[in-house]
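Budget justification aside, the reviewers requested a transparent look at the raw inputs and outputs of the sequence design task funded under Objective 1. We therefore reproduce one unedited record. The lines immediately below are the structure tokens for a 331-residue chain.
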């Protein structure tokens, strides 16, 4: 069981009745707390929870409408996302408790200070490098407008400006990361057909691809609900359309793709996790049509080349700059 969940269950008398568990990991909490409901924005956790506890967890960027007597927030990595989630929960909990649980290295002590905007925070427990805090909501805020928290910026590309919209919690919120910037310069010559932006984030690569290859079908896949909503906003801002897929990894992608383009993630919360990226490299061939291409950008220190050549075939390095490399391999 996740250590944050273990800290919660050290206080069983606090967590009886109808609770909302926001951002809960895919563990046994819903089984241990039979009246609890889940709110998830991670497609992998939601898939597991929906299979084990049908109808008891919702995948969304917005808080479920059901009434609850208390809510527990599993602290996310992003401070901006934590701000939004705390306000969203507190807005519905006037006179009720809001609990905050997280890892010390994830910023739980800093985040707990933000609870003072709603009442007097109390530290309830500390164990397994995690802490549990609570506040009785005395000053309930207004319901936050998620879209009002979006940040926008413009990219000057060779085919004209591209407007990017990012929401709290999305990778490189409000700015263009160096890896994607390098890959944007090397999108020429892709095979025609169905294109996939894997780990789409705010839809930077996907929007650029759709504008450059307007006749190609485009899908954008991400594990995070806030990333998918950002991609939807980016596409709409630029008058573009594509398929949005909430998926746990490349196994959620369509078959028969002409190309997979990616700046693949390797962080899960505060932890480094290469599993999704390595699965992409080892399983991409199953989703590519004959002659289909995998083109990705990665930190130069990552040993991706042997994996790509083992599972797809000969791999070229198209570019290298600023600590990143662009790899290309065809089935």
């Amino acid at each position: 069981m996740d250590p944050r969940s273990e800290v919660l269950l050290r206080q069983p008398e606090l967590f009886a009745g109808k609770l909302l568990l926001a951002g809960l990991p895919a563990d046994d909490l819903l089984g241990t707390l039979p009246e609890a409901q889940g709110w998830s924005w991670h497609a992998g956790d939601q898939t597991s929870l929906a299979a084990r506890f049908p109808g008891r967890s919702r995948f969304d960027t917005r808080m479920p409408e059901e009434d609850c007597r208390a809510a527990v927030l599993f602290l996310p990595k992003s401070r901006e996302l934590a701000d939004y989630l705390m306000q969203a929960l507190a807005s519905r909990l006037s006179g009720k408790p809001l609990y905050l649980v997280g890892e010390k290295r994830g910023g739980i002590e800093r985040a707990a200070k933000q609870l003072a905007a709603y009442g007097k925070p109390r530290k309830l427990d500390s164990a397994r490098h995690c802490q549990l805090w609570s506040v009785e909501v005395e000053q309930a805020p207004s319901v936050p407008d998620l879209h009002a928290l979006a940040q926008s910026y413009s990219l000057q590309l060779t085919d004209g400006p591209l407007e990017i919209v990012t929401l709290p919690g999305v990778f490189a919120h409000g700015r263009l990361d160096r890896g994607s910037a390098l890959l944007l310069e090397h999108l020429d010559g892709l095979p025609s057909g169905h294109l996939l932006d894997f780990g789409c984030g705010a839809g930077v690569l996907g929007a650029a691809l759709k504008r450059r290859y307007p006749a190609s079908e485009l899908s954008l896949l991400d594990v995070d609900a806030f990333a998918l909503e950002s991609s939807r906003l980016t596409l709409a801002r630029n008058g573009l359309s594509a398929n949005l897929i909430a998926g746990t990894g490349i196994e959620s992608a369509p078959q028969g793709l002409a190309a997979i383009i990616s700046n693949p993630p390797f962080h899960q919360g505060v932890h480094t996790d290469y599993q999704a990226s390595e699965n992409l490299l080892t399983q991409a061939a199953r989703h590519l049509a004959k002659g289909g291409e995998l083109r990705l950008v990665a930190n130069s220190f990552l040993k991706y080349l042997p994996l790509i050549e083992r599972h797809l075939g000969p791999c070229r390095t198209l570019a290298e700059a600023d600590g990143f490399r662009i790899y290309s391999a065809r089935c």
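The radius of gyration is 21 Å. The first helix runs from residue 3 to 8. Computational costs for records of this kind are itemized in the attached budget.
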